[in-house]
Amino acid sequence: MATMWGIHSDELSLDFVEDSVVAIGWELGDLQRFKGDLLALKARLVEEYPEAKPGAIPVWAGVLNKFAFVMEVGDIVVAPQKRDRTIAIGVISSDYRYEGPSTVHPHRRSVTWTRSGIPRSEFSQAALFEIGSALTLFQVKKHRTEFEAALAGVPNPSELAPSPDPEAADDQLPSADQIDQSTKDQLIFQLLRLDPARFEELTASLLRALGYKARATQYVGDGGVDVIAHRDPLGVEPPILKVQCKRTEQVIGAPPIQALKGTLGSAGEFGVFVTLGGFTTEALRLERSSHDIRLIGGDEFVQMLLENYEDLADEWRREFPLRSVYVYDSLTGSD
């Protein structure tokens, strides 16, 4: 049976699906010279990363060794896409290759992506927790059935999640990253249940917590502008923010961003597009080429809520009750 792997990438300039690859970093040159010699690989990591914690070296060596020499053509790969909060699932279609020091994440394998753009909400929280591993590369075992179902196009794969065993002991404490992502997933699940008009009111409240004077426009016939925000009391001095809110996990393309851009008048007006999902590559390119457009996806929106939670209106703190805790920040598996 093919092994199922999970893989992470924090490099937003690299699009696994668009490039038909999975890739990892670490500047060590071609890994082929370390095949069968894990000690030499560890020694090279120590040489290249002298400031790394001692416990990180064997973890990194394990990730690199698995990526280059243990993964096989035909294995399944599950890749959470940070840029748009979706999951991509595919099949490894090539052996390991090194693409040179000028390439972002130069250690690569080709992948045939069978499914991409799957909303995180289609999976159980336990399955999302498993693929939130602190490691860059890891095996997916406990919730493999869910991801296989999604790969086959079965709707609502979370319904196949095994019932939790209250007597089963987990032999590994969750990482800080797993807990952080789990909190964001749960918050987005609750936000998706808001009425669209209420989501606009929440966005206005968040902008007020950030120091703006903000108001939601009338819900019907708003011309594509859901919230208007400004710094001065009357809202006549720049900068003036025109905000469009989409309470959806679906990926937003360039056309809605262009439409928002079309509502901007003077040089002091800026468009802000807020969604609970993410944006296509074309939409992100449009943001990069425009000085007056800002895109805020689900992860960033929730992070802003968390960072400004104490300054939100009481009604929102009652609707989304949170408490702050400290979590041990253990070693991660990325460079």
Summarize the model shown.
With 335 residues, the chain is of the alpha+beta class.
Describe, in plain words, how this protein is organized in 3D.
The structure is a single chain. The protein is of the alpha+beta class and 335 residues long. The protein has two domains: 4-172, ph1033 like fold (Roll), CATH 3.10.590; 191-319, 3-Layer(aba) Sandwich (Trna Endonuclease, Chain: A, domain 1). Helices cover 32% and strands 19% of the residues. It is built from eleven helices and twelve strands. The strands form two sheets. Strands 1, 2, 3, 4, 5, 6 and 7 form a seven-stranded mixed β-sheet that branches. Helix 2 packs across helix 3 and helix 8 (254-261) packs parallel to helix 9 (281-289). The longest helix has 16 residues, at 176-191. It is elongated. The model has no long low-confidence stretch (mean pLDDT 89).
